[in-house]
Each structure stands twice: as structure tokens, then as C-alpha cells.
Amino acid sequence: MSNEKSTRREFIKTGLFLGAGALLPGGLTLTNMIQSKNSDDRRIIIIGAGLAGLACAYDLWQAGFNIILLEARSRPGGRVRTYRDSFADGLYAEMGAEYVDSEDHYVKKYAKEFGLSILKAKLYDGVYVRGKKFRMKDLQNLRHQLPYADIEGSNLFGQEKKYINHYVEKIRTWSKQNSISSFSLHDSSGQKKIKNSININNLPQDILDLDNLSIADLLRKEGAHKDIIELYTFTSATESTGRPGTLSALSMVLDHFMAGGFNEETDEGRIHGGNDQLPKAFAKSLADKILYRRPVKKIEYDNSGVEVSFLENGTLTSVKGDKCAIAMPVSILRRTKISPAFAPDKMHCIREQSYGHVMKIAMQFKRRFWDEPGSLGQRVFTDTPLRRVYHHSIDQPGPRGILLSFTSGADAEKLGRMNDLRRMKVAKSTCREIWQEAPRYWEDGVSKYWNEDPWMRASYSMVGVGQKDFREILSRKEGLFHFAGEHTSIHRSSMNGAIESGLRVSREIQRDN
Ligand SMILES: Cc1cc2nc3c(=O)[nH]c(=O)nc-3n(C[C@H](O)[C@H](O)[C@H](O)COP(=O)(O)OP(=O)(O)OC[C@H]3O[C@@H](n4cnc5c(N)ncnc54)[C@H](O)[C@@H]3O)c2cc1C
Q1: pTM of the predicted protein model
Q2: Could you read off the pLDDT of 411-463 as tens digits, one per residue?
Q3: How does pLDDT run across 315-368, given as a tens digit for each residue?
Q4: Rg (CA), the chain
Q5: Quick check: CB of 281 below 6 Å from ligand 1?
Q6: Is the pLDDT confidence value at 369 over 50?
Q7: Of 418, 452, 486, which residue constitutes the final position of a domain?
Q8: According to a count of CB atoms within 10 Å of the terminal CB, is the N or C end of the chain lower?
């Protein structure tokens, strides 16, 4: 089950979906209602009901704006996707966004507002790489060492640092000379103050030039053993869903400078009972302001306003507005007709923004053998086709349980070319390598490959080689258009970033009015 078909929890059930022609008070149909108003009613059209579009719509709606939100799917949340109907005993699994980090200010703020709590996730118990199993505590006590050349200490993440430290030090010295006490990028939503925000482009030229190299190129140039690059593939590159050969070396150096990178000790949580509760709570407040199953096909504008055309029951329909907030991924925007085109640099970034590949597989087992004595444990870091495998159902009663895998980069592409049956075969046999007893308790599995999702076709944005300026260009307002989405946020590729970007756009629109 690699798509939304069999597990879709129909949004109709919640009463939030109003199909085309549904009757509203006064006998108007939704379509009539939209078309009966013209653009002078100061309508703001928002495209995409992921967290970015929802947060934007919610903030504008609270400020009293006339909004309409167009969404291609029959549910809110986009890449926040909780599968609930695929498993026995009320088990569920996050097939999209999962973790809320301790720094995720906006997710926490709205979770609190909607009465949702955050459940603490568990850390890694084991490592299975190059065919060898290691318990995390044995690595941490230095009783064993990872089987990679040239590594120091026991950390999985950050082994590349010694090769790029001189760049990190150079930025540190430069920051001191320029009286920048804390280096942080500007949080543009206006809700969270960050001191001493700096413009990346003010960094010394030789640092900026790193953007023209890939991470693999830089590590090779600095003399790193190929094992270091391979390990990076399974650590940070897996998190960003890319490959060391396609990611910008500048982003790796900045990550180390800010020490904000992910590591095996990162404190993570997720929304108790399922992350989809967050977008659903936004959507419930917005109610009939959201029109589902309305894929946008064309965006047109002139001095007087914008016109957005979308499919409604297979017929092209349009709505006019004063302004438009585009909160759909650029992987889809690049397939949408825009007339006249936006500025050339914006169009270039829309076309070229890099995204990765990602697949999740949720596996249901009769028994939670990973908790039993002698097992490698409940969360394992691997270099197998499953990459990360972990017990997901920690907040749900047993005896059944779900192991979830997170595969990205080349392995996700490879799994993505297989049919569901083959994916499950690979999943089952990989689990057997990690936990010998796994096949005995295996019941079933489902997969979600985001690169085959029709409204995403990718994982999340990443800084590709030569793309250091893309985020700024993509987030820049252009005439009557504003741009939200994780790809426009300094907290890119996260739920937090999506919300931040939506709030930024809401503030831009409110400022302009
Ligand atoms: C597998 C996976 C794991 C992840 N893990 C994490 C994690 O652990 N923690 C975390 O914080 N983040 C994680 N993320 C990232 C997070 O999901 C995203 O950053 C965030 O949800 C993006 O929100 P968005 O609103 O920008 O985009 P989306 O959620 O993609 O929303 C865009 C919306 O636009 C709609 N749309 C697209 N095309 C059209 C069209 N033509 N017309 C109308 N509507 C359209 C889509 O249907 C969608 O609803 C993960 C993502 C994936 C895929």
C-alpha cells in the first residue's frame, strides 16, 4: 500500500469536506458563492492546505481577512500523514512528518493551542552496519568501534567535522570580528526573536564558494577517507533525503558552525495520538474556507488582481482574488501554468529547487520482540535498504506493534522502483537480518513513497549545489503573490518551518493592507 487509496481516512467523515454543489445557507452552492463575488471583496486565495497554507489561512482568518484555501487532496495536512486504517488494534503510523524537536517553537505553540500533547520519542538502542550489530551503549563506552576507517570516538554523526573544521573556525573568527555574538538566521515570521541575524552573503568569499561544491567533493578535496563519505550518506544525508554528491558543501559547514545539525542524541517527540491531529485542528477552525479536491492548474494575474483556475469535478473553474499565497511545494508549482511568468530568478528557483527521495514502510508484528532480552533493541540505525528502523507504537498497547522504517536517497529510489510486494519482501528480510526472530511475528506492511505522490513527487527541499540563495528568492514576495512552504523557511524540511513560513506570509499580507 504505497499510496493514499486504501488507508485514506475520508475527510468527509469529519464533516469538514463540502463537495462541489454542497448547499450552503441561503441556497448558494460553494462554486456559486466564490464566483458571485468579484476581486474587490479583498479575497486572499491560498493554495495548498499543508501546515504552511493552514497556518497562513488560520492567522489571516483570525485577523478578519476574507480567505479561501484550495487543496488538491481530500484531506488537510499534505506531508503530515497518519495512516490509521491499515493496522489492527487501532494502531497507527506516521507515514510523513514524524518528529517534533525540542526547538520546534511553532509546532509546540499550536499543539498547545489545540490541546495536543507531545510524546517523547526513544533514542537509538543499536546500530547495524556493514553486516555487524552494535549496541549503542557498547559504542558509547568505547567497548566497540564502528567498522569505518578514520573515525574518532563513538559518534555516528559528525565524523566529517575534522575535515572541515578550518572553515568552521574561519566563520567563527569572522563572526567575532564583525561583532556577531550569535550566528543565527533571521526568523521571518516575526514571532520569535533571534538576535544578530546575518545575511549569508556577507560571509567571506572562500566560504561562499563552498556552495559550488558538493559535500562529497569537499570531503574528498580535504582528504577524507571514502568511509567518512559513506558514513555521511547514512547519517546527515539520510536526514536530508539527499546524497553527499548532490548536497551543497556550504550547508554542511554552516550546519556545523551553528551546531544545529541532527545527531543520534537529538531530543525528539511526536504528537500523542498522531500528528494529523494538528492539521485537522487548523482545518476544523477554518471549516468551509477550505475547498478540497480542487487541484490548481493555472495562476494568472494583472494589475487588478489574480485569477486561479482549478479542477472541480473534472471541470476547470476559476476564482478571483486580491492576492494569492502559494503554499504548494515547488515540485508541483513547476508543473502549474503561471501567466505572466514571475521574475526570471524566481522561475529559475521554482524549476531547479532540489528535493530528495523518501520512503517509509510501516510493518505490523504480532509481538514486540524488539523489547525482549537479547534483542538489539527498539530503534536501530542501519546502512540497509531500510536505513532507520524503529518501534513506532510506543504510545499504544500491545501485544501487536509497528516497526517503521525511514529510507531516503539512493535506497529510497531503488525501493521506489519496486512494486509493493517486493518492497515488503525487502522489508521483511532486512528485519530478519537485524532481529532474527522478526519473520515469525510478521503480519503485514504498507509503504508510502513520497516521490510517487501526485501532489508532492518528492520528499522535502534541500540545499543542492549552487542553491544557497534559493530559499531567499523563493520566499520573496512578488507583486500580488506571497510564497509559503517549508522550502521558503529557515527551518526548512520541517513542520515547524512550514508553520513559520505561513505566519510570515500572513504578516506580509497584513502589513501590506
Ligand atoms: C517522509 C517524511 C518525513 C518527514 N519527517 C519530518 C519530521 O520528522 N519532522 C518534521 O518536522 N518534518 C518532517 N517532514 C517534513 C514536513 O512534513 C514538511 O516540511 C511539512 O509538512 C511541509 O508542509 P508544507 O505546508 O510546506 O507542504 P505540504 O505539506 O506538502 O503541503 C502542501 C499542500 O499543497 C497541496 N497541493 C499540491 N499541489 C496542489 C495543487 N496543484 N493545487 C492545490 N493544492 C496542491 C498538497 O496536496 C499539500 O496538501 C517529513 C516529510 C516527509 C515526506
Answers
A1: 0.91
A2: 999 999 999 999 999 999 999 999 999 999 999 999 999 999 999 999 999 99
A3: 999 999 999 999 999 999 999 999 999 999 999 999 999 999 999 999 999 999
A4: 23
A5: no
A6: yes
A7: 452
A8: C
- Residue from 58, 79, 316, 452 to probe ligand 1 pocket by mutation (most atoms less than 8 Å from CB): 79
Q: Which of 147, 144, 155 is nearest to 131 (CA)?
A: 147
Domain boundary among 236, 262, 288: 262
Q: Please check whether residues 336 and 479 belong to one and the same domain.
A: yes
Q: Is residue 15 part of a domain?
A: no
Contact 46, 56 (CB under 8 A): yes
357 lines ligand 1 (CB under 6 A): no
Beta-carbon contacts of residue 298 (< 8 Å; ≥ 6 apart): 308, 309, 316, 318, 336, 337, 338, 339
- Return the pLDDT at 224: 97
User: What would the grid cell of residue 167 be?
Assistant: 572553515
Residue tagged 512578488 (cell numbers): 478
Is residue 356 within 6 Å of ligand 1 at its C-beta?
no
Quick one: what percent of the chain has pLDDT higher than 90? 81
User: Which range of residues forms the domain containing residue 115?
Assistant: 82-125+269-273+356-452
- Residue 257 C-alpha from the chain's centroid: 23
Could you tell me if residue 183 is inside a domain?
yes
* Phi, psi angle pair for 154, to nearest 5°: -115, 0
> Does residue 486 share a domain with residue 441?
no
Same-domain pairing of 398 and 428: yes
Residues 112 and 189 occupy one common structural domain: no
Same domain, 348 and 469: yes
Does the beta carbon of 458 lie inside 6 Å of ligand 1?
no
Asked if residue 457 belongs to a domain, the reply is no
Written as one string, the DSSP assignment of 391-460 is E--TTS-SSSEEEEEEEEHHHHHHHHTS-HHHHHHHHHHHHHHHSTTHHHHEEEEEEEEGGG-TTTSSS-
Range scoring the smallest mean pLDDT among 57-61, 132-136, 175-179: 175-179
Q: Which of 80, 328, 379 for mutating ligand 1's site (highest number of atoms within 8 Å of CB)?
A: 328
Is 236 near ligand 1, meaning CB less than 6 Å away? Answer: no
